[in-house]
Amino acid sequence: xxxxQTIAFLVxxxxxxxxxxxxxxxxxxxxxxxxxxxxxxxxxVEAEAETAPxxxxxxxxxxxxxxxxxxNPEASTIIGTNKQQGLVxxxxxxxxxxNYQVGKINNVDIHTKFNFGGDSITIVGATNRTLNTINFWKxxxxxxxxxxxxLSNAISPKTQDVYGxxxxxxxxxxxxxxxNKFYAISIGTDGRMEQWELMDDGGKLKARYxxxxxxxxxxxxxxxxxxxxxxxxxxxxxxxxKISALPAGGDKKELIADVAKLKIQPDIEGLTIYYGAGGxxxxxxxxxxxxxxxxxxxxxxxxxxxxxxxxxxxxxDGTSDTDGIDVLNLALGSDFPDGVFIxxxxxNYDGENLMNQNFKLVDWKEIAGxxxxxxxxxxxxxPQKVVQ
Length: 388
Ligand code: CA
Ligand code: CA
Ligand code: CA
Ligand code: CA
Ligand code: CA
Ligand code: CA
Prior knowledge:
Neuraminidase; four-stranded antiparallel β-sheet; binds calcium ion
């Protein structure tokens, strides 16, 4: 009888756990995710907040860039793309603040200290698949609004379909003439990467062609490390390449993450860098095919340290099929005192209801603390891309 009671209790517990699981997962198979994480040694984290859903149905949310508000870090914003119609600005609670319907904006990046019209501005750049251009805005640092920059020449990549995007500022170039240049780098679905030097032309933005680098198949994720001069390129079905971000740095490509060797699965999507003092930090990549995020050291070895997944919890669903990601190490007020990691979610559930896609915000400490050993938490180092 005792044995039967134990079994009955166990069966009941399992039933209760699985039904709780299905409620909190909101339609996603969280049990399967947890089993997969365990099997592969992936870490599990939960989101602290999520943004409002984008306006467009189906595959629409894609990439993000975080604007760090120096005067009031808690009032920093998330600039997200709705690849059906434009850009959306959210606060750190995920509430929509501004919406710009300017075309099929795919990927977005941000950078401070661009000398423009006699000012040092915070510039936002994004690929526009409607016009096949790169569009640029200035962040209004009082309100967080975006103001389109006047151009002295259209910045139109020669690729048929402009897709990925990153800024790069060459603060560590080996020769003085290469130093402190400001670049926009885009890549097309045909693997054609194009790099422009950006400059101020009497209050208008001017772009001068710097180089073209070709990759064999479709690429999207791009991120440049201002301090090391490394540029990482995600070739979706192949892995992550490292090349010099300097136009004069040569075209030598090193495959630092190979989908055939690591627990990363196509498509390789968003790439971002966590900056810490003294060259420390990480390269993070969205491994879309297995709903996880891979972490590599930022140093020259780019050693793979492990992967994590975002599972449901606290009323917020987990992520799957992620496109863009971004991370910022800095303290962002009471909700994110140790920085934030943001990921697009391919299937955004509220309870059992499938909503339009959105972005999930995870406390960096939640991620760092899961790894064995812990990842670095450096909430005071100012990365070049946010330093005023
Ligand atoms: Ca997608
Ligand atoms: Ca981005
Ligand atoms: Ca893609
Ligand atoms: Ca989800
Ligand atoms: Ca994408
Ligand atoms: Ca949700």
